[in-house]
Request: fold
Amino acid sequence: MLAGQAEQAPVSVSGRALRGGRDTVALANTWVVLHRLSRESSGPLDSVRSDGRGRYRLLLRNPDSTSQYAVSVWYDSIAYFSMPLNVTGRPVHVEDLIAFATTSTGPPIGLARRLATVARAGEEGTREVLEILELENTGLTTRITDDTLVPTWAGAIPSTALQFQGGQGDISPEAIKLVRESVLVLGPIPPGHVKQLSYGYVLPAGEAGVALPIDQPTRDLNLLIEDTTATVEAPAVQSLGVQTIEQRRFAAYRAGPLAAGDRVTIGLPRGKFQPQTLLPYIIGLFAVAMAGALVWALRRKPLAPSAARS
Reply:
């Protein structure tokens, strides 16, 4: 604390820890932890065990308006976090934290929504793509895996995709990886609300279109394409007009529900004109012209001696 800065009264943070499943019951005598979430100093601040009814009360001393805070509960090898807390009011009440037993089997994880944003071609003609997906666990347990070859969920991306990178969401980028043309999720997926993950990749230059693979049932598909002259083919596709997002204009489309194997294609206009792309053709034309001149010279009749002397 800075010199001369008045010490603030502690803020009470309270809520309930529950165990979900067929019936939701109190999660008694489990550790509940209050965390600071900031780039400068993240870590636990206070901890307490829940009582017989799953209730807990933590103290946040000297709250910092530039930091975020969250509460977590640990159950069956998995930590469950609350949404970021608003500490401006006193006291702070946290929404119920619901934990679940873990298992590596169960009903398939569903793809509730898939959003793909395709940017305009850059200077090199490549296009950046950002995909945001919402996964839904309809079971009663948290899906986990301890085998990197058996993910909790997997989905396909275009075969031409380059520079794949996991993004931010409910699932950590460290728990997402690409194997051939499949995105593998190795992190836990609990039941309840949909869990969001994101990833990005680049489409090569010169592509006249891209096929978005649909390898599993997809409830909703949304497309945002910055090239507003692009065309989209998909089952029951609907055009939603042009939308402005952060001062950029995107043609919006919606389709779904989709079945595994449905065909979704995006026809893209050619990228920006690049003079250097004409160089191979110029060299080729020059070579043809030189060859033609050589043939003409070889076929020309030789001059008579008198004409040559003249």
The chain is about 10% helix and 40% strand. Residues 279-299 form the longest helix (21 residues). The first strand starts at residue 11 and ends at 19.
